[in-house]
Task: structure prediction
Amino acid sequence: MSPSLPLRHLLLALAVVAVWGTNFVVIKLALGHLPPLLFATLRFTLAALPAVFLLPRPPVAWGNLAAYGLLIGVGQFGVMFVAMNGHISPGLASLVIQLQVFFTIGLAMYFSGERLQRAQWLALLLASGGIAIIILHTDGSTTLLGLALMLLAALCWAGGNLVARQAGRVNMVAYVVWSSLFAAPPLLMLSLLTEGWPAISTGLQAADAYTWLAVVWQALGNSLFGYAAWAWLLARHPAATITPMALLVPLFGMGGAALWLNEGMPAWKLGAAALVISGLALNLLWPQLRSRFRSRPAG
Result:
């Protein structure tokens, strides 16, 4: 397989990262009407139904599906939606959640005893510098609580990554669909317990066509299209060719928030983004760079 992408495949990859990045703007718009945990409930309900009747259950244990559904549905998206409900701006949310990469590495180290390489320490230091800048500039649009919740969401995403890795090579679309069965019920219970029926009823009555389009976009565009297209690309090209494109997600997220929500982009925010994205890029690309240097003939 060639390391270069045909134009159609490149455009498809860009479409996926654009959907994943601008999804944070869609979330913010829907939260104007729907309570966050109710919104998450609707997202995972639509992700599961009716697709669960059309796709066979992947050959993994029920416990694995349940763990993934709880970590991603409740832990990642439930917590993220709560954070974005007035505690962190969409642009910064799209940036901070990408720290799941380092949480995934940390969890893998804890369970397998692996050690960080020097380049990974530098990558972590760069990303941590970006988070430190965000902490120093928390304001009305981004609070310490919002930042803490987003870091918790990133940690849950990392846990979901390890659970999915244990599942092995499966149809990821079917995996997401079936695991969503375990995400929707606890999200609904949490919504009833913490948001209450009056807020749920009011939110459903206030929801307009754009709100329901946002729910559909979350379930079908962000989850099913995103996972299906990404898996399709990874099946046809080396991971080293496809995965670096995920670095564009926060760029689409921050750009979309600035364009559609008029989110400010002061110098400190751009600096924080540059540090976090640099850390992510170094962590992702250094193995390729190292192998190239080692394969280069001496002299």
